[in-house]
């Protein structure tokens, strides 16, 4: 026990944190004079069982007592606080567990207390008493002298004899919640003039695993090691704790099936000196939180996490498939068993992540069942490709279409029937550009040029352009196709030269943009541009990957989600996510587009009923999923 814990150990019921039910029951019993002869305090270590027993001894022996509010200044209270009271006996059952020790208690029980009202016996680790010792105490516990009070403290309630439990009033102590533990640590830090941020206190509280004593001892150790100024890095170095950001990022790699990315990230963590064994244990705890959130439908209030981590956990629980979470938990248990045998957990951890992100590499029976479950849920094996290639100037290859992309390819109702009412405000758009512009002419004046000047023009590409386009040779004016063009506001800075309008003698025109071109560039350019925005863009990219451009009218783009993607549709309406999409569209197309979110009216099953999968298509899908071959059984 450290000096800091001893100094800030609770001395009254008001100072006890996190045990409201126990405090309320004992206070009412003391105020009404209904004190039992024996109490049994059970619960995890470091939750204040022995401290509560000392407070109870003060309450019954105080000069104002019995009372639930001892004054703390009388001789009885002062001697109990200093562990010097002749009427309060503390016994460690781990070393005094035999029948001879109990016989000594029986001999002293008949004598009257010296300075207080009652003799109080506080027996720690009571479950370690032998059966013979318990049997010798049974009669004394059931019918003690009026001046005798027993308080048994134990961390393993199930090991206490049932005959003893029936003679005691039992209280089960709960682990404190993370905010309660952080508040207690903040109180101690402010009282001791320790400079420590809230993030470091949260890590210290989490490392205590719900034990006040462990958390306060860690704070005392860090204060001594850092001369009273504690940082998050100091806590991580001492405890070897894994930051929440690391756990969320590993799971994000699993969401994206990015085998290469997660292996490179583990390599970086190992090079930085991260304890891989602790990473395995903390990752298992994080996956347990995800499993509980998916099973319950919301983040449980009892989880020892901060409010910021609670919001991120809710989002990730909707992104990660439940089957993947359970599969990864099963695989990580292999790493835990290797650690118990003294092995290196790094290889089992890497194998587990590879098997989850690239399921086709595992041919075990469990892996086949996992892949079959993913196939039934509509997840295509083509998304289990290796991680993206090293970054370079070229745009990334388009990903294979997932369930949302297949749904997007199906026939859809008229746009007017599906458009929702949410509109993202246009950024930096002239307010009265359309109101002041004249009506569009019936024919394009460029089409009236002589035929000798007409020449075919290359189609415009909608791929993401480099940040600094290479200088181009001046291009002479070329005619465009004679399609009617509606006047649109000119974009201030077109992203790529190919989309720049052809200069004419009459008036400049904005970049031409077609819906089919935008649909083609959606996954490979727009979504990739959102991902390049950094950590904040990854969740937004995950949401909009399930959508598709459905309609383009002027500068208004309708983005439609499948009817089954209700969660993605709701999260996409967040102004932060819409801002990422607006910026990405501007980078790709050079135009500021208004975003309208829509939801398809028909669900996936109805679309599949209109276009049922053929037997040949199902066979090909089974062959690609399980790396199988079709055998000719007729020969």
Query: How is the biggest beta sheet arranged?
Result: 5 strands, parallel
- Which strand-content bin applies to the residues? 5-15%
Overall structural class, as computed from helix and strand content, comes to: alpha/beta
Could you give the count of β-strands?
9
Uncertain segments are: 380-508
**Rg from Cα:** 35 Å
Q: Number of helix segments?
A: 26
Quaternary structure = single chain
Strand order within the widest beta sheet: 2-3-4-1-5
Would you write up a description of this structure?
With 635 residues, this protein is α/β, with parallel strands linked by helices. It has 26 helices and nine strands. It has a five-stranded parallel β-sheet with strand order 2-3-4-1-5, covered by helices on one side. Helix 13 runs antiparallel to helix 17 (346-357), helix 22 (537-544) packs across helix 23 (566-572) and helix 22 (537-544) packs across helix 24 (575-589). The N and C termini lie far apart (80 Å). Mean pLDDT is 74; it is low at 380-508.
Give the helices and strands, then pairings:
Blueprint: H1 3-7, H2 20-32, E1 38-42, H3 49-61, H4 75-81, E2 88-92, H5 99-109, E3 119-124, H6 131-142, E4 148-154, H7 162-165, E5 169-172, H8 178-191, H9 198-207, H10 212-226, H11 232-239, H12 244-255, H13 259-271, H14 276-296, H15 307-319, H16 322-340, H17 346-357, H18 365-376, H19 403-409, E6 419-424, H20 433-436, H21 515-531, H22 537-544, E7 548-553, E8 556-561, H23 566-572, H24 575-589, E9 594-599, H25 604-610, H26 615-626
Parallel strand pairs: 1-4, 1-5, 2-3, 3-4, 8-9
Antiparallel strand pairs: 6-9, 7-8
């Amino acid at each position: 026990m450290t000096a800091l814990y001893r100094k800030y150990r609770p001395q009254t019921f008001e100072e006890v944190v996190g045990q409201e039910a126990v405090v309320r029951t004992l206070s009412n019993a003391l105020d009404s004079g209904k004190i039992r002869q024996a109490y049994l305090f059970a619960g995890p270590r470091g939750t204040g069982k022995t401290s509560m027993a000392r407070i109870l001894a003060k309450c019954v022996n105080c000069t104002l007592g019995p009372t639930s509010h001892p004054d703390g200044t009388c001789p009885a209270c002062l001697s109990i606080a200093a562990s010097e009271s002749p009427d309060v006996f503390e016994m460690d059952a781990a070393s005094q567990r035999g029948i001879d020790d109990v016989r000594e208690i029986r001999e002293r029980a008949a004598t009257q207390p010296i300075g207080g009202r009652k003799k109080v016996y506080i027996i720690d680790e009571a479950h370690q008493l032998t059966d013979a010792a318990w049997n010798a105490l049974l009669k004394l516990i059931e019918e003690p002298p009026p001046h005798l009070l027993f308080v048994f403290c134990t961390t393993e309630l199930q090991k206490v004899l049932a005959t003893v439990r029936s003679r005691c009033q039992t209280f089960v102590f709960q682990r404190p919640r993370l905010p309660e533990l952080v508040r207690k640590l903040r109180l101690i830090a402010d009282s001791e003039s320790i400079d420590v941020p809230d993030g470091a206190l949260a890590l210290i509280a989490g490392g205590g695993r719900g034990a006040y004593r462990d958390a306060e001892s860690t704070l005392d150790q860090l204060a001594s090691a850092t001369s009273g100024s504690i940082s998050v890095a100091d806590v991580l170095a001492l405890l070897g704790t894994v930051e929440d950001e690391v756990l969320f990022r590993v799971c994000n790699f699993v969401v994206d099936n990015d085998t290469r990315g997660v292996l490179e990230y583990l390599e970086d963590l190992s090079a930085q000196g991260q304890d891989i064994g602790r990473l395995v244990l903390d990752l298992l705890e994080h996956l347990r939180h995800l499993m509980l959130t998916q099973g319950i439908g919301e983040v449980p209030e009892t989880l020892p996490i901060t409010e910021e981590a609670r919001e991120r956990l809710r989002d990730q629980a909707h992104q990660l498939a439940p089957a993947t979470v359970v599969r990864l938990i099963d695989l990580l248990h292999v790493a835990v068993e290797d650690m118990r045998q003294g092995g290196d957990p790094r290889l089992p951890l890497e194998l587990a992540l590879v098997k989850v992100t690239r399921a086709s590499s595992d041919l075990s029976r469990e892996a086949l069942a996992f892949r079959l479950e993913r196939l039934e849920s509509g997840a295509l094996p083509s998304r289990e490709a290796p991680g993206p290639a090293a970054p370079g100037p070229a745009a990334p290859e388009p990903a294979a279409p997932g369930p949302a992309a297949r749904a997007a390819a199906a026939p859809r109702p008229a746009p007017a029937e599906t458009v929702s009412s949410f509109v993202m405000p246009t950024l930096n758009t002239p307010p009265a550009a359309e109101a002041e512009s004249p009506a569009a002419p019936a024919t394009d004046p460029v089409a009236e040029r002589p035929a000798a000047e007409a020449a075919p023009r290359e189609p415009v590409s909608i791929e993401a352009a480099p940040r600094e386009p290479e200088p181009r040779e001046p291009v002479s004016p070329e005619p465009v196709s004679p399609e009617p063009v509606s006047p649109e506001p000119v974009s201030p800075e077109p992203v790529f030269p190919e989309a720049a309008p052809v200069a004419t003698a009459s008036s400049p025109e904005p970049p031409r943009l077609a819906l089919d071109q935008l649909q083609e560039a959606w996954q490979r350019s727009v979504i990739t541009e959102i991902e390049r925005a950094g950590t904040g863009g990854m969740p937004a990219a995950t949401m909009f990957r399930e959508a598709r451009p459905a309609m383009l009218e002027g500068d208004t783009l309708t983005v439609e989600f499948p009817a089954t993607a209700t969660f993605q549709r709701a999260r996409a309406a967040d102004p932060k996510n819409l801002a990422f999409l607006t910026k990405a569209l501007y980078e790709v197309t050079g135009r500021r587009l208004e975003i309208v979110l829509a939801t398809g009216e028909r669900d996936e099953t109805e679309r599949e009923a209109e276009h049922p999968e053929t037997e040949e298509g199902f066979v090909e899908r089974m062959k690609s999923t399980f790396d199988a071959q079709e055998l000719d059984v007729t020969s």
